[in-house]
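in:
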């Protein structure tokens, strides 16, 4: 299989894998957990289970793919994608649901860093564009999933929704088995040794880029968790509340290839700075919005900023990585990102409980502002 065919196959795999993963949690997970009688606190722990697993798994999966090859790790992730959804059918309490979520979290925790490393392997030129295109293919799955899951739940309950998740996961695994070997056994074991991982962790530039990724997902997860509650307080209709996240993901998916091309031509760090500034503007505007039209405009600005940031981070990390340790480097970035993503709802929840949702969004914008200085220093070093 040639490079173009392999890339296209990876994009299709990414669509089905993320479609399956997202259908299992949005809006399915909180509704299913509530149907089991779980409290808000229990639902919070259940939702965090998969992300916490990712913190440990991302860096390990990336490093192992450097040793044993990308295809083997992709197959491992495919097994989790194909099996985990059917386990929800056996769940009866919060502990069982937490364990299934942790097991399911292994799927994306393995798949994400390894699949991005595959793109880095395939393309040494125009990585920003290619990673942007790949990311858009997964975002299409993320875009479709909530509506599809909602329809299935309304039509026939949670059982059919989780069966559909499983079918999508099985399709992803079947397609993964068609992936070429991509040079398994040719990499040196030293490339993903502990020394190699420590070398990546000691690179300040990679840590700065990973920090930017972490605060970006901190902001995204905070908005995803608490904007619906703010809209509910504003007495916005439920169907509009559900539409806004779809708009956000749609804008990110549509603009990611464009931002990837901009990153290739204008430079990774400049694109990241542009994205941070746009994201801050969007969040500040969101905190000042008093009707749904202004909120949608604010989310659109924020989404374009997120697209610019995330179209630059992975390509930059791969370029900063010594040798061919792309898996280890992307794993490090994804691990740090998951820390930010898991922290967002917790910290923003505390702030919103004390000061309200809009002040929580202001706090998120301040956190984003703090990474401008280290990114500017990175620009000088580049």
């Amino acid at each position: 299989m040639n490079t173009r065919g392999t890339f296209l196959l990876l994009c299709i795999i990414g669509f089905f894998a993320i479609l399956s993963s997202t259908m299992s949690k949005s809006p399915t997970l909180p509704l299913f957990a509530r149907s089991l009688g779980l409290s808000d606190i229990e639902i919070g722990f259940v939702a965090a289970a998969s992300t916490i697993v990712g913190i440990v798994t991302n860096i390990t999966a990336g490093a192992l793919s450097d040793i044993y090859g990308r295809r083997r790790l992709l197959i491992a992730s495919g097994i989790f994608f194909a099996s985990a959804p059917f386990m929800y059918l056996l769940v009866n309490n919060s502990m069982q649901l937490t364990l299934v979520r942790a097991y399911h979290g292994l799927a994306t925790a393995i798949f994400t860093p390894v699949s991005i490393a595959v793109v880095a392997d395939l393309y040494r030129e125009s990585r920003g564009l290619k990673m942007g295109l790949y990311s858009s293919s997964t975002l299409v799955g993320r875009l479709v999933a909530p509506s599809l899951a909602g329809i299935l739940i309304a039509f026939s309950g949670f059982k059919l929704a989780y069966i559909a998740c499983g079918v999508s996961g099985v399709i992803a695994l079947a397609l993964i088995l068609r992936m070429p070997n991509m040079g398994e056994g040719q990499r040196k074991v030293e490339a993903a040794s502990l020394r190699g991982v420590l070398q990546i962790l000691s690179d300040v530039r990679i840590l700065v880029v990973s920090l930017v990724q972490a605060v970006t997902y901190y902001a995204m997860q905070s908005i995803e968790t608490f904007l619906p509650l703010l809209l509910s307080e504003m007495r916005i209709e439920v169907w509009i509340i559900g539409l806004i996240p779809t708009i956000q993901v749609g804008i990110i998916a549509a603009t990611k290839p464009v931002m990837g091309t901009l990153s290739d031509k204008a430079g990774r760090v400049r694109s990241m700075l542009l994205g941070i500034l746009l994201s801050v503007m969007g969040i500040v505007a969101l905190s000042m919005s008093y009707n749904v039209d202004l909120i949608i405009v604010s989310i659109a600005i924020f989404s374009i900023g997120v697209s610019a940031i995330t179209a630059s981070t992975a390509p930059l990390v791969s370029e900063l990585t010594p040798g061919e340790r792309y898996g280890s480097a992307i794993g490090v970035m994804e691990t740090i990102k998951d820390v930010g993503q898991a922290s967002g709802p917790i910290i923003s929840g505390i702030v919103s409980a004390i000061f309200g949702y809009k002040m929580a969004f202001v706090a998120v914008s301040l956190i984003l502002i703090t990474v401008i200085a280290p990114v500017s220093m990175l620009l000088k070093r580049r």
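note: Residues 168 and 182 are 25 Å apart (CA to CA).
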